[in-house]
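Thread title: Can someone regenerate the structure for this chain?

I was given the following input by a collaborator and told the matching structure tokens would be attached. They weren't. Posting the sequence so someone can regenerate them.
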Amino acid sequence: MYRQLFPRPEERGSIIDKENPLPLYCQLKDWLRGLIDDGVLGVDDQIPPELTLCEELGLSRGTARQAINELVNEGLLYRVQGHGTFVSGPKVQHSLGQRFTSLAEDMQEHKVPFQSEVLGCKLLQAGERRATTKLQLEPSDQIVFLERLGCVEGEPIVLAVTYLPAGLCPDLPEEDLTNRSLYQVLEQRYGLRLSHATRTLELAPADEYEAQRLEIQKGDPIHLVRTIAYLEDGRPIEYSKLRFRGDRSSFVFEVHRA
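Best answer:
Regenerated them for you:
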């Protein structure tokens, strides 16, 4: 099944050169990456099993496993328990770290076929939630809780939980927010003028709920983006946590030297 991927035995030194100071697992990674970059292996194609790689290229099981593990961690490959290892789809790039846009606006600008589904939107007592402090509210105030799932071509990419002061958008739960930019709704429906935001990006393991919603395994890496957005008068309007699939997303930062 995989024979066509390997060159003839006398030419296999072009893949694995044991005289090369580059570690063998790195050479294997480079070869597999090349098959993907050149289109020999496409999205959802299965790569040769570890045992086949070992037999064909004269490698140890540990070397093959290390190369594959690193490509999985980098998001280039993904595993299906009991079935094998496959080529991941291209990562969705985000510029949320550079410009003050909503996720939907960012996807629209990059012409990514993005859809969002509202999982829940309701009024809650602010209480002692972290969002209460971030939004400068009192525990007795009301808060809007909004949870959405963002997908690209039907595949879940991001799980978003957002809190907003109910006093500024009290009937937001009655709005149809499916496939709409929250920021555009706040500006056009409520006349709120958004100004700037602070965002933090960190890597975290997916918990059971996040894994279920994003269709990944518990413990898989996710990109966690926390945002506090402010109005022109300095009042906080949004506290959100966006959990992006680590294997399907990347963040691009453009920086300038003054």
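The domain at 3-87 is CATH 1.10.10.10 (Arc Repressor Mutant, subunit A).
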